[in-house]
UniProtKB/TrEMBL annotation:
Entry's Gene Ontology molecular function annotations: peptide transmembrane transporter activity
Cellular component annotations (GO), alphabetically ordered: membrane
UniProt KW keywords: Membrane, Transmembrane, Transmembrane helix
Descriptive protein name: Microcin B17 transporter
Native source species: Thioclava dalianensis
Amino acid sequence: MFRSFFPNPRLFFPSALIWTLLSVLVWYGYARHLGARFGMGLPAPGTPQVIGLGFFVTPDFLWFYGYCALWVAVFAAVWMIAAPHPWHWWSILGSVLILASNYFSVQTTVDLNEWQRPFYDAIQKALDGGHGVTAGDLYHMLFIWSQIAIVWMAVYIATNFFTSHYVFRWRTAMNFYYMSHWPRARRIEGAAQRVQEDTARFAAIVEDLGVSMIQSVITLFAFLPVLAGLSHFVSELPIVGHIAEPLLVAAVCWSLFGTVLLAVAGIKLPGLAFANQRTEAAYRKELVYGEDDAARAHPLTVRELYGTMRQSYFRYFFHFAYFNIFRGFYIQADNVFANIMLIPTIVAGKISFGVMQQILTAFGQVTGSFQYLVGSWTTIIELLSIHKRLRGFEKAFTSEPVEAVGV
């Protein structure tokens, strides 16, 4: 699955992670402040936040873009020279492009979050009968919103288009890899289904799940500082009272609680889904043999195989039912959790309507990123099941122990 598309996956992915962590440490420890020497440093404290299209071309942003491009160029060049691979343009630079476009998309969301405070504060002032807010002011703010929204849509469409091609190339690489071993792979039961159906489903799920995961991680890192900055507006939380960084602590604790809760509740589901696929395969195999051999697919045999399959599915349905109970309660509670956390601050009148909207949006972005598992668990289960089948298939035609992957 991975060696067909990425150069030496056992080294590539750890090296990519280490290189990324190193670049982050260098950025925050040294390079971030180095831009000031070239007139591209951080804005001075108290400088008004740039909102609109100018948000994306501030000096500190341009410095960050150049820094990232340098680190990416060095990493890609080393791998392309040291371990050339037929798909390295797509697997290395294509992956970087997807990460970069998702980062830019998240930054448009940050820009929209910054836009909310002046817009909703202006609405509150106008509703209170305050002078100085005209219809032109509100229309101007909506025009700024439309500019940001257009940029977001353009990036979203381009990212999805490129990602579809990227994932199809990955599927193509897998297909060519499996077909290069076809003389041995063809003897394995269900080989055609693994090569055609499972690679297609793997590609489709990776396109959906992988992009969502990337965006969740980037959103988390983008909005954590925003939420930390907004925490000074909130003096206390219900029950716990005064704590440092209250919004950040509440978002992290609530999200981790939900993630652990659903991980424990659904821990058996991937194995049960894989068991369903095995009973399906046994049932399908007997029917296929029965097409050419009248002695096969005897009614008693078919009934027994179908009964085994039914028992496997009913066990899966039972476990999924109580998983949905926990997931349903958590999702409903999550809809009002941020509002509950803000009640003491709202009652004390310490925040404006615009700040409240900004906090709710940032809080939702952070908790939504942490709760990636909550919303994607069903798809993750399917991906794990496909991964097990493909790993078993690969182990079988490379003469490796199949038991190692649970097949």
